[in-house]
Amino acid sequence: MVSISSRYLPDHEAEALAEAFGPNGMRRRSLLGGGLAMGAGLVGGLTATPLSAWAADAPEAEITVDQARTAPIPIVIPSFGPGVGEQITQVVTNDLSNTGLFKVLPGSAMSGTPDFAPYKAMGAHAAVTGGFSGSGSIRVEFRLWDVLAGQQIQGTAYTTNAANWRRIAHIIGDVIYERMLGEKGYFDTRIGFISRSGSVHQPRMRLAVMDQDGANCRILSSTQTKLPAFSPVRDQIAFLSYASSVPRIYVFDLASGHQRIIGDFNGVPLGPHYSPDGSSLVVPVAKGSGSDLYSVNIASGAKRQITSSGGAINVSPSFSPDGSQIVFNSDKGGSPALYIMSASGGSARRLSYGSGHYGDSVWSPRGDLIGFTRISGGQFSLGVMNPDGTGERIMTQGYTVESPSFCPNGRVLAFSRSGPNGGAAIHTIDITGFHEQAIPTPEGGSGPTWSPLNV
Amino acid sequence: MRLKLLGALGVAALLAGCSNDHTNTGANTGSGAAVQPSGPVPGSEADLVANVGDRVFFELNQSGLSADAKTTLDKQADWLSKYPQVAVQIAGNCDDRGTEEYNLALGQRRANAARDYLVAKGSASSRLTTISYGKDRPTATGEGEDVWAQNRNAITSVQ
């Protein structure tokens, strides 16, 4: 393999980028491994085989992108073929386009090493070629090409059950994302949420899960459910259920479909929140006039109180990725604001000082930002700030925009948006505040929680 | 003592005001004419709503009980003492100017405030359960303070 560098953007485009994506811009990481483990929701197995470059003089290349970017990367993605091949092409195209970081250009399919001249002429920086074959067991072949250098960047053939075609498309999208942008993608992920139906005055609220693009939506609970949280490491969702006379915390195992009650609280539990290693939950428990945070070991059920509110409401705890700190929402200062404390408890430092009320504290998996909901002047805003409280930036506003949840690479947040007469829907927005999109769901949706990257 | 007396007077006034409720007791059959049952059954949810007041209201993000709220809860306490077989649930609700999770806690705070007041007035805590719906069950929909004020409440209902 040969490493090459390729500048994709003129210098004048590089500056705003740095602001949007941090001082290091977007940097390539190591080449992807050749194999992929079996994944969540995968029917049958999945085999990924590296494909060598077509021509001996065109070895696999690695692109280094040192600049941050504002303009979308032009990439040509011709159809992988009729039927399922075309469906795969559409899913890959949608995934990349929805990021706002790629501009997908149509092109005619080519076999073998593409003729790069027409791709160069249309301004493409990269090209994808692919093919599809089989019916019960399918083989999807895919290659990513550096158009400017005229070299193959990646080539992989996936063999799997036909039912997995959509996941293969997301996996291909993630490979392209990672090879072009230098960090892991988030297409092969799911979003847990509350599917809302019935009247606005008495909604039916059921736990549901869907692919990050809204496909494969499944309702998981028949009873009233609220405040779900996806485990950061496994196929498990914790949630608050009203199945019994008192609200209880459950964890639902997506692979087996089994669920069980976690903890027995001397008070009323609110929404569960996972520790970064997935071994414990932090649960606010309402008692008297306040609510305090409790850490609960999922396996043993052992509990430990980590705040002493003295009647204040402490909710929405979220761990730093290293597990050392917790950001949370408290009204101990008189109105709801964000605070940070050690994960083991102790004194807390106030983080938010803007006007209005702050809530929904959520720490990015990258560690660099804290997402929040701000309610000020009769309007809801969704924003991010640095973990030291500086750099507050509002991404979007509305009658209500709330319940933010980061995707695994920290670039995009899912949230719920609703109007004065209800109609809650799941939306996504990237941390720069661009590319807000509604995720289609069969019913209304609220309380999104993003899964880790499927493994 | 004064509160208890007022409470008793309140119940007397209540009984006088809805004599048609008592058809089933045979109390109003003196005239010999058949009296069609109408109005809420005593001790029922409808009775509570019509003759006592099932809900109290709160200021934004607050759970303190206003004078009006205390008056309503006093009546509820009297009503509960009159119908000792009745168990009630107090549901705390919030307007939608708060986040889901904060409002769930705030609704619980409001329900607990109403419950604690009723207990202080002599209602047995074993008859009172609480639940918070946060902002999931608005009474009124739409925008503006008039709507939001209706939705910041604690509602007592017969179980």
TrEMBL record, chain B:
One of its GO terms (cellular component) is cell outer membrane. Keywords: Cell cycle, Cell division, Cell outer membrane, Lipoprotein, Membrane, Palmitate, Signal. InterPro entries: Bact_OuterMem_StrucFunc, OMP_bac, OmpA-like, OmpA-like_sf, Pal, Pal_lipo_C. It is a lipid-anchor. SUPFAM superfamilies: OmpA-like. GO terms for biological process: cell division. Residues 45-159 form the OmpA-like domain. Residues 1-23 form the signal peptide. Its main location: membrane. It is found in: Cell outer membrane. The Tol-Pal system is composed of five core proteins: the inner membrane proteins TolA, TolQ and TolR, the periplasmic protein TolB and the outer membrane protein Pal. They form a network linking the inner and outer membranes and the peptidoglycan layer. Part of the Tol-Pal system, which plays a role in outer membrane invagination during cell division and is important for maintaining outer membrane integrity. Belongs to the Pal lipoprotein family. This is Peptidoglycan-associated lipoprotein. It comes from Acetobacter aceti. The gene is pal.
